[in-house]
Amino acid sequence: MDNQPQASPDIFSKTKAYFAQLAMVARFISKTFKEIFLFVKPPHEFDELFKQCFKIGNKSLVLVAITGFIMGLVLTIQSRPVLAEFGATSWLPAMVSISFIREIGPVITALICAGKIGSGIGAEVGSMKVTEQIEAMEVSATNPFKFIVATRVIACSLMVPLLVLFSDACGMLGSLTGINIYGDMNMNLFFAQAIASLEFADFFPAMIKSVLFGFVIGVVGCYQGFNAGRGTESVGTAANSAVVISSMIIFFVDLIVVQLSEVYNTLSN
Amino acid sequence: MSEKVAEIKGIYQSFGSQEVLKNLSLDLYKGENLVVLGKSGTGKSVLIKCLVGLIGIDKGTMTILGKSVETANENELMEIRKKVGFLFQSAALYDSMSVRENLEFPLKRIETNISKSDLELRTVEALENVGLLDAIDKMPSQLSGGMRKRVGLARTIVLNPEIILYDEPTTGLDSITSREISDLILSLQQKYNTSSIIITHDMPCAKHTANRIIILAEGKEIAEGSYEELANSTDSLINSFFKQ
Ligand SMILES: Nc1ncnc2c1ncn2[C@@H]1O[C@H](COP(=O)(O)OP(=O)(O)OP(=O)(O)O)[C@@H](O)[C@H]1O
Ligand SMILES: [Mg+2]
User: Fold this and answer.
1) Helix (H, G, I), strand (E, B), or coil: what is residue A67?
2) Which ligand 1 atom is the nearest neighbour of the CA of B55?
3) Diameter of chain A by CA atoms?
4) What's this model's pTM, rounded to 2 decimal places?
């Protein structure tokens, strides 16, 4: 302590700034929840909600389809030799579907959405902030938090799970293709095996996770945009940090949900 | 003198270590056009943003239509803002919406049970007033700077506010259009008895619209009076604003 006299005020102010930031985030999230719960009250913003849902779904559909398909294909091709060693290649559909639905589908889709949707929200809301559009809404006595944040967060929380399901389906098709490159398996048999191996306990945590991923992408994008600075370069910063931060949080949420569902599984057995 | 609709008493405002407003006081009377002059960066825009609670102040009091601004909670601020129109210096049009939607946006949300035909009527009337009815279905990105400004003005007046705060309503416009906008400001004042604060660098507009002028310098008021009084002032600093 004594040999670093200048360090302490610096650390002090940095810690203070850190907690101030944390408080701001907490306030933002609680306000978001409030607006989501009050969403059905007038003035209604359902038009904007549908617009955002469409935009989000439409924007990422092709990307999610292509990556899902390729991941399914690659996973199948790479797992095949390992399973072949045990003469268990017939387990391929089961193995791929379980790993896809539990983990790969949600996480890959969420990361793609963080890149595509999160950056879009960060940039859009950031530029609304920089060009005073958010202030303009405030002075015309409308609630920008409801119109901008609540709609986007709800839209993300709804659309990301749908995109995950779509990605799962594309992954299955990719896997079917992968199996048919080497061997021969018709579609009915493949899906019968894949579906037989799946349980509710595979789907449910994955869907919960996907909703949370969507929520994270929406909230982080809006937060970064809402708190963008004054110059145009802060729009880029907002978009960039929206992607980086939401990707990080997605992994943490993944970890926590997996742990919780493990605990739940051991308790219920 | 008629009643005060807005009263600012000794306000201080700063961004970090930069002090912008220093002990500024100002009254706005019913039905009056108050023009605010001042060099770029003296805090004119900050002043009117403080007045509607967009920027917090460090010290002092502000009242609008009898309601305190700096102590108002969110709902009270909403009520105040419903009665105050605000034209942003940058126009601040909603980029994702067409001109029509820009005007309908506040109308639909403030007058929640407005009928479709009324909505159309008011929108068209406001756009006609600024001479931009042809642009009703354009997007903001398709408009020129001056057109954006005029749409911003239309969006402000479409709500028929009791008080209007204009941040440089004629900047970036040619002299003919500037004159038309000045006429519009005057006619709104006469028709609805609105009270306005008009920030401008455009002296013909100031001369045309002002009932009273104040000059700001470094966050303080340095002079107040009618156009003629200030234009004939012997103080060289004040006088310099009126030299073309
Ligand atoms: N949000 C903000 N954050 C930090 N500083 C600000 C902010 N808004 C304004 N300022 C500073 O406050 C001062 C006054 O700005 P303001 O926009 O009120 O000037 P102005 O009088 O309107 O000038 P102009 O005639 O050029 O529009 C400027 O020095 C500006 O740098
Ligand atoms: Mg200004």
Assistant:
1) helix
2) 1
3) 75
4) 0.90
